[in-house]
Amino acid sequence: MKVYDLAFVCRSKNAGPFQLTIDLMFRTKEEYERVLNSTNFTPGNIASLYHVKPEQVAIKPFERIFTIKTVIQRNAGSGSLADRDVYGSQQHFPLGNIEV
To answer: Which of 22, 50, 68, 81 is the most exposed place for a label (fewest CB within 10 A)?
Structure first.
């Protein structure tokens, strides 16, 4: 099963010009915990998907609302010549495709 199969919301957006945030929201605690505790859902694995270093990935769980926020430092600032997605709105696909 993939993250997309469990999360009812999977979206990305800028968190300032140098960070991207991906929000995963779940309906149940079991779905939330399955993703959070998966051996594939790690900063190292996520970093490899986004071509950054593991220390550039932060996983921030919010158990009370069954939400996981993943913050990734961008390789290029939003709006710079090297930027491919000014708003960061199309960056959730690799994360959603992780097998859990």
So the answer is: 81
